[in-house]
């Protein structure tokens, strides 16, 4: 079933004004209408974690009151966290995993921090999807990761802009 532009906008809670609207205007309107509601499971959030954010992920967990006794990942992987809290983790602390889980959940047009980190460490593009499904690739990352232990990958302004 195909929906018209008017039906899509109505479903998004918008009403089209008289006359046509361009795709840029509709994208801008959709961005304005985005609501940061719902919840994200911690395991979904942490699957994007590479450890190249300078401790931002751990600072975010601490600020949200999420226990992480190993000093790296949350103890309760099934815990549900409000989307707005995950967004705060990305914007205030610079948590790369938070930015990526929101990019995936809301279809944001922003660079993948996971992809940038994998390219930095492994030297290859477009590994994000494979990284989730291939334990061999995850082990390869862990093996090469030590060289980048003190490296902090900066978050591009395009990511912050998409989350704003």
Automatic annotation (TrEMBL):
Signal peptide limits: 1-27
Superkingdom, taxonomy of origin: Bacteria
InterPro entries: TAT_signal
Protein name per Swiss-Prot or TrEMBL: TAT (Twin-arginine translocation) pathway signal sequence
Keywords (A to Z) from UniProt: Signal
Cited PROSITE patterns: TAT
């Amino acid at each position: 079933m195909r929906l018209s532009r008017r039906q899509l906008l109505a479903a998004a809670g918008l009403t089209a004004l008289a006359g046509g609207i361009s795709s840029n205007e509709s994208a801008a309107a959709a961005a304005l209408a985005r609501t940061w509601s719902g919840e994200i499971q911690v395991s979904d959030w942490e699957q994007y974690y590479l450890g190249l954010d300078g401790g931002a992920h751990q600072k975010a967990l601490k600020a949200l009151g999420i226990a992480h006794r190993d000093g790296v990942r949350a103890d309760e992987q099934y815990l549900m966290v409000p989307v707005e809290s995950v967004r705060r983790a990305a914007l205030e602390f610079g948590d790369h995993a938070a930015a990526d889980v929101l990019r995936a959940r809301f279809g944001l047009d922003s660079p993948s921090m996971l992809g940038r980190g994998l390219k930095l460490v492994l030297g290859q593009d477009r590994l994000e999807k494979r990284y989730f499904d291939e334990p061999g690739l995850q082990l390869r990352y862990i093996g090469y990761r030590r060289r980048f232990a003190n490296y902090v990958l900066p978050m591009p302004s395009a990511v912050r802009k998409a989350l704003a």
